[in-house]
Amino acid sequence: MAGLTYQLFSIAVVLGAVQPIGGYSFKNCIGDSYSKNFNCINRKEMNTSAIIKDLPPTAINLTISYTLIVHIPKESFVHLPNLRNLRLDHNHLSNIDDDAFRGLNELKSLNVSFNNIRELSPSVFDNLNNLNFLSLTNNSLKQLPRDIFSNLSHLDTLVLGQNFLTNFSGIAESVSHLQNLSVLDLCSNNLTSLSHSNASLPKSLTTLFLCKNKLVKLGCKNRFLGFIQVLDLSQNLHLDSTAFEEVDLSHINDLRLRSTSVDVLTFLNISNVNARHVDFSGTHLNNTRLTKLCRLLRKKGKTIRKLSLGYNQIHNLTNQMLEYCPTITGNLDLTHNNLNSTSCLEFINKQKSISSINVEHNHLTILHSCQFYSNNVTEVSYRYNRILTVFAYAFNSTPNVKTLELNINIIAYLDCDALSGLTSLETLRLDNNILTDLLQCMFRDNHNLKILNLRNNRIAVIFKWTFFNLSSLTTLDLGGNKITHFEESGLDGLKSLSKFYLDGNNLKQIDTSFYHVFQDTLTTLDLQRNQIRFLNEETSSPFRNLSKLSDLKLDGQRPYGLTVLPRHFFRGLHSLRSLYLTHNDIFFLEPDAFDDLTGLQFLTLDNCCVGATQLQPGVFKNMRNLTLLVLENMGIQNFSKDVFGNLTQLSRLQLNRNVMQIVDVGALESLPNLNYLDIRNTPLICTCDNSLLQNWTVYSNVQVVYLYNLLCPHDPKQRFYNFDTKVCYQDVEMYLFISTAVAIFLFTATPLLYIKLYWKMKYGYYMFRSWFSEQWRILREQEENCKYDAFVSYNSADEQWVMEQLMANLEGNGSSLKLCLHHRDFELGRDIVDNIVSAVYSSRKTICVVSRNFLKSEWCSLEIQLASYRLFDEHRDVLLLVFLEEISQRQVSSYHRMRKVMLKKTYLQWPGSDCTNPTQAQELFWNKLRRAMRSGSNPETEEQHSEGCKEENRETETHTSDEKYYLLP
């Protein structure tokens, strides 16, 4: 397996050398492969190139924010030619080189706001020919080079707010040629006037923001603002009415003068501005001056679309307040006026065309009962007041209102008839109040209500029939209350409910009996931060009939979490698309916990479990449509294919802040659509166990978030992506297999070899030693002049026979034969083995006197082995076997060489006393032995002797069968 892995790795390396690497993990950025967005946020890197050098040229949107970069060198983005949106905001930039943006011909938007830039080079933006939006807000610019925007012919919006610009003439000159510029933002600078020498604003400019400057006068020519439609001069504290003398404001559609010193009554008399397009917010109006303003407005026109009166000193609304105003056809803005009473908005009796009334951010405490009607108002907002009580028929004056906002007050009492008559109401916001009780009578007329927001009140119980009349309601938000239970029929009537928010309450169980009325319409159910808890696995599914539910939130049950996820808890939720289970301290996830969630696309289990989590094989087996899985901080220790193998559509997997040390690459490879993997803050070990993972992160098509910042836990100086894996690809397994196989073979074969080859090896050893000492060569040279006719090999137990019979018959009686006997002829003090070798090779023959004692002797065995090797290996007839007693072949079977001699050569048997004629037999025996000793040792001599033996054998056999003194093969 390791060998195959190494081969695959080698192939991958070769392929990587000839084609681009498929993987894309970035050192300082997180990318989105689909939208081609790259976010490089909160990085500690100070070098721009180091942040973006590894980004692909396909990048379209790039954000570099909240970093330490101070400088952008030239051609920093040249490798990103397709970039269209670039954000460099909230950094420490102070210097941008010329040609820093070279190559960004497709760039549409550039945001360099919230930095420390003090000055810019005239050519810094020369390469951005297609730029539409440029923001330099919140820097330290004091002036702009004259031609800084000369090549930005397509620029539409330029934001220069929150700098230290003082010279408006220079600004006007730098933008005068921008024929597509429509928005120029110069708010929060140090401009004192709009003097402009000979410069002019482009005719395309329609919106000019000059708020929060130090303007004292405009100082511009009559037609200088002739094309401006939106002019914001608010919060120029020293700007007064005289500044507008002889300035053409006829094209203005929206003029803002809040928090200036302009007297609007004087201003309207001296200016040619259309009074209907002036925002009167913050122009020091009170009730008396408002009446004068209305008279003046009426002189200038019979209708006005919008009347903005916010940020003034209008403390009460009377029936005559707007009596002299022109007809208001749109919105009336009364925000931030310290109003104490609205008098039932009685003024709308005379202003029946108003469609929207905004009374936010005032001091209203009570909404009184009203007895008159107006049919045109559709939107009313009382947000951010101090309303405590809403009396009956409080909105009779606006019976056709569709949107009513009463949120962010302190409403504790809502009369049963407070909303009476509001049959057209579609959106009602009562959130962020202190309501405690809801009654059926409160909503009896609101049949068309679609959105009801009651979040963050103090409701504890939903009484029966509370929502019975809200058959059209699609969204009900009861989150952030203190609800402990629903009374029977408490949710009846909600036939169209689609989104139900119950998060942040005190519910301890999920009662399915209350959901039957909207079980066929509900798509979103939010039960986060309640007190739901299960102690056993036998609870039936509370969702089994919610056939259309697509979004379910069960996060953070207080204070213990769900603890147990019951078996089949999600039964029936085949349409569910999103499931949230974070922060629940679940002890164990059953393998079939999610079996019914076949349509799930998003699942988050972040912080859902207690301690180390052992995900069971098959726990996600039916989630073939899952695309996003969040498993952060679950204590996961292992990652296997058995768990994740069926997630074939998964594209994003977040595993950060877990405790796994090894990641199974096979499990990752089983996710064919995976393109985003987050394993930050996991203690991945930098050993061979993760060598395949390291290789996979480089050559896969999956983005591993901040891969190059992953540290090795045992060596913080070492990075995971490049720890040394060379040793991991040596074929250790093969080596271990071979060495083990050899060891087993030797263990098995050694006893057999010992039995069969013991003497051969011993002989080889002694021959090698003799050869090494050059004795072998000497013996071979002496062979033709042998010292002895025969070397006698015998056991000491047979020494009597050798001395009395063998020596007497071969050396006695005038015989010329000379024998070598170890007790007589071995050299004293010499190694016995050397004596044996010398005796064998100094004798023409070797006579082995074989008996049972001979076979038991180690030295006798060595001697016969030496002689037999001369016989077979050197093809010399040097061995004579003499058997003193009957020995079967079985007894000599372990002496392989001796048995081989017996099968191929004639051997002699000493005739015992049991022979018929022992004397004659022994005489024949000695004659044969003498003849064999005198025969030559070369092959020809051996063959002749063999024939002679055969002839004499035949002769002897005819003589007698009892005189047995030799055996034929």
From TrEMBL:
Compartment list: Membrane
Signal peptide segment: 1-23
The organism's place on the tree of life at top rank: Eukaryota
Alphabetical keyword list: Glycoprotein, Immunity, Inflammatory response, Innate immunity, Leucine-rich repeat, Membrane, Receptor, Repeat, Signal, Transmembrane, Transmembrane helix
Stretches for region Disordered: 934-969
Pfam families: LRR_8, TIR
Record-given protein name: TIR domain-containing protein
Organism: Gasterosteus aculeatus aculeatus
